[in-house]
Amino acid sequence: MAKILEHNPFQDLLSKQGIAPLEAMAWTKQNAQSIRISLPKESDPNENRISLSPQAVALLTNNGHEIVIEKGAGERAGFSDSDYLLAGASVSEDVAMIWQSALTLKITPPSIAEIARMKEGQAFISSASYQHLSSELIDAMNAKKLMAIGLEFVEDNGGGFPFIKIMAEIAGQLILPIATDLIQKKKGLLLGHVTGVPPCNLVLLGAGQVVEQVARAAASAGIQFQVFDKDIYKLQRLKSALGFPIVTQVIDSENLAKALQEAQIIVGALRSDSGITPCIVTEEMVSKLNPGTLILDVCIDQGGCFETSEPCTIQKPTFEKYGVTHFCVPNIPSLVAHTASLAMSNLMTSFILKAGKTGGVEEMLWQGKSFMKGVFCYRGFVTQPSTGKLFHKPVKDIQLLLLSKS
Description:
Strand order of the largest sheet: 3-2-1-4-5-6-14-15
Largest sheet: 8 strands, mixed
Number of helices: 17
Family: Belongs to the AlaDH/PNT family.
InterPro entries: Ala_DH, AlaDH/PNT_N, AlaDH/PNT_NAD(H)-bd, NAD(P)-bd_dom_sf
Shape: globular
Radius of gyration: 23 Å
Number of strands: 15
Distance between the termini: 5 Å
Organism: Aquirufa esocilacus
EC number: 1.4.1.1
Helix content: 40-55%
Enzyme class: oxidoreductase
Structural class: alpha/beta
């Protein structure tokens, strides 16, 4: 661990204002280091995003970092190998070499076969969703003593989850166009308001970023909608953020069941800090919905909030049960992979630049406690409580592990 500099209240004041003391600036310059970063091709055929855009690569290489990308890794996101070469990256077909970098960036977690190619003690950043992890995969990570940072767990300085928020913003903007296309084909319905014709009814479960985006689009189109959530505070926040009147209700069996039976479209966007979304709509409730009702389960990556939900793919995004169409694609932003990659790249670049200035990824955990919270496996131990609970693994405190290593 880097030496901790003595400081005084005046230095604390400067830090709060975003002004670094001269000693800290000297420490940063002295400890700055180049990081070798790899971007392997996603093995999941349904994942089209990539963690860094060519623009981000140019910025990182100009700051002394080395970037190596597997040939064709950015093609599904609309970035060519020549784009990355011009940005200063190396493009390689040597898979064994690509997996030997100090830091690996992926969207989905590495598979057991990919972990086998990594060196002991390497770090990687990827998704850590319920859908992608398994007990065997975590055991393989810990056997290699890898440092695994989950995008879902990373917090910003305000306690928010920036990666979740930006992907939810994209998913929320896609939901209504997806619903429009599906319900027009299935039932010949137009979602927008037409004079003399009753509009479609829309029920939104959740009061987060996804629902905020859907609500804005629905209000503009003249679609009637209701928002249900368990948390009054979240409903109040949503009303304040939207700035126009909406119908909100706290989830309870009687009101919810009635609203669902009158709806043409139901969007489930409830997320849980535990990693598993609570099941709000039972199979019995789904069986009583009108035939042709459309369900879009946006939180299927956490198990889904409909009991009848099952993970789908971009190639086959829907299935029917009880005459109800289910859309359960876990990585909706991958449908607009270029935009989603740019958004993710903006956040990732900030982290890597700071890691380089502070002496590396591990030192960054001390300097940026928000990314420390993103670590779910560290040097042979599970460090994220929700991950440990989900897969029945003992959990160690990340700060204690870092202290014991220093």
